[in-house]
Amino acid sequence: MGSAQTNSVLAWDTVLDLGDDDAPLVARLERAVRDAVHAGRVPGGAALPPSRALAETLGVSRWVVTEVYGQLVAEGFCEARVGSGTRIAAGAAAHATPKHPTSSTAAPAGRARLDLAPGVPDLRHVPRAAWLRALRDALTDAPDADLGAPDPAGHPAARAAVVEYLARARSTCAGLDDVLVTHGATDGMTRLARALRSAGHRAVLVEDPSWGRLRDVERDAGLVPVPVPVDGRGVDVDALAAAAARTGARAALVAPAHQFPTGVALAPERRDALVSWARTVDGLVVEDDYDAEFRYDRRPVAALQGHDPGRVALLGSLSKTVSPAFGLGWLVLPPRWRERLGADAGGPAPSTLDQLALARFLTGGGYERHLRAARGRFRRRRAALLDALSATLPGLPVTGLAAGLHVVLGLPDGVPAAAVVRAAAAREVAVADLRRYRVSAAGPGAEALVVGYGNLADARMGEAVAALAAAVRTTTTPATSQK
Question: Residue 340 — very low, low, confident or very high, per pLDDT cuts 50/70/90?
Fold first, then answer.
């Protein structure tokens, strides 16, 4: 039976066993796909369902499915072809991860051994002891009243700590009532997207390229993401205003401090122009602070929120600075938007104990000590990455501020990034195609990779870059290979 026929009769809700453990849904679905292939329930070459269809079948968000597909494609376990969707790679069964790996040197579940994927912090240096101390002290000192049902907006102590930290570190201007404690940036955007939709908004202006998860959240809320180009000075505000006039959009999602994935900062005159646009159209700018705390050549630029607290909402989290496993973040809102959300803050608040630990982590200096140490590690690691790229792939452009957790590597003419990603995955290297983050259809243009360095052990930098360089050198276009 052919793979297309096989796919047509597969009952995916029974083929894929997500289990019922406490692991994140992304990890559980990725594990389920691997296990299904390893067990022979899904053959090599089988077509996976469209992301929206599988999300509906399994009862998960579409983002969970697209994130898993993207990771498996990046590792070469799956293949993505224009016009034929995502398929299990023909030889995947031979390389499927066993359920019970025994090697002490195995990579963490779901991560490549040589992890150059962007957007992941250093999971080896999560401040476990500091967090455990904050959590223990929070539980010890919490009054009985704090152990009841949590405030949907967040515990006052956590909100106050966020207000003080952001004012000190990001030059924001907000009061206690302007802050919601969230499960992270995605949760914050989910709440805000629903509020925008209920207020009559039908579209949101988004940077192109940009992080796809937040765009999916907007779509799920009934909003249409409208792409706006990004250049070397950040989002093109003139193009943004033109797109707003054309579509009626009055909200924009941007990352001014360190744009993902291009790695640029929004130019000062564009910061002013963006806020002026929001005032003119009675609109809202949603600022994704992403990894703004990691700047290596100077102090991080101030948050745009402090420029006009009445027109800018700020999304922040611990996901890129500490670990996504903590599931904690914040949403700073202009007063009238806080009133629009009202008592229904958009979903269950994080655990009260986690919020109280966050308050102690912020006010006791643990967070800023962690950031100082992380900046030093990432500064050195970025320098080592640039040196290794210069030595192994001389002449290829590397762009992006001395900031964040990734750089952008341009590729030689005629070398497609998607093919390099597959070739790298065969060498146990995870890296991302810049086109993966584009909103509009990817047309002709320079091919590039987004190369992360957050979660790669320093001792493996040389090995990882050497393997990536080999993947680049051995990759050719089909036309070239036939000559």
Answer: confident
Q: What whole-number distance in Å separates Cα of residue 306 and Cα of residue 105? A: 46
pLDDT at 334 over 80: yes
Matching residue, tokens 């049902």: 149
CB atoms inside a 10 Å sphere around CB 452: 23
Given a contact cutoff of 8 angstroms between Cβ atoms, the answer to whether 179 and 330 are in contact is yes
Domains and CATH numbers, the chain: 3-107 (1.10.10.10), 128-367 (3.40.640.10), 369-481 (3.90.1150.10)
DSSP character for 117? Answer: -
Tokens of residue 80, six digits: 């993505």
The span from the CA of 221 to the CA of 189, in Å, is: 10
Does 379 have pLDDT greater than 60? yes
CA–CA dist 244, 281 (Å, integer): 9
Q: Are the C-beta atoms of 262 and 292 separated by less than 8 Å? A: no
User: Residue range 289-304: average pLDDT?
Assistant: 91
Q: Burial letters for 85-107: b for 16+ Cβ neighbours within 10 Å, e otherwise?
A: bbbbbeebbeebbeeeeeeeeee
Query: Coil, strand, or helix at residue 332?
Result: strand
- The tokens describing 223, both together, are 């909003």
Cα angle at 221 between 220 and 224, to 5 degrees?
A: 85
Residue 405 CA to residue 51 CA, distance in Å, equals: 28
pLDDT tens, position by position, 227-246: 999 999 999 999 999 999 99
Answer yes or no: are the C-beta atoms of 378 and 118 closer than 8 Å: no
Alpha-carbon torsion (59, 62, 63, 66), positive or negative: positive
Identify which has the larger pLDDT, 68 or 117. 117
Tokens 């276009």, residue located: 477
**Around Cβ 22, how many Cβ atoms within 10 Å?**
6
Query: 339 CB contacts (<8 Å, ≥6 apart)?
Result: none
Can you name the residues that pair with 225 across neighbouring β-strands?
Answer: 204
> How far is it, in rounded angstroms, from Cα 196 to Cα 401?
32
Q: Residue 22: what pLDDT? A: 57
The answer to whether 429 and 114 have CB atoms below 8 angstroms apart is: yes
Which sign, positive or negative, has the C-alpha torsion 444, 445, 447, 452?
A: negative
Q: Is the pLDDT of residue 357 over 50?
A: yes
Contact 380/358 with Cβ under 8 angstroms?
A: no
Q: What is the pLDDT of residues 177-190, one digit of tens each?
A: 999 999 999 999 99
Q: Are 199 and 222 in contact (CB under 8 A)?
A: no
Decide: 53 and 9 in contact? Cβ < 8 Å: no
Residue type, 63: W
**pLDDT of 15 higher than 80:** no
What integer best gives the mean pLDDT of the chain? 87
| Sign of the dihedral through C-alpha 235, 241, 242, 243 | positive
Task: Determine the Cα–Cα distance for residues 408 and 220; give it in Å rounded to an integer.
Answer: 30
Cα–Cα distance, 285 to 283 (Å, whole number): 7
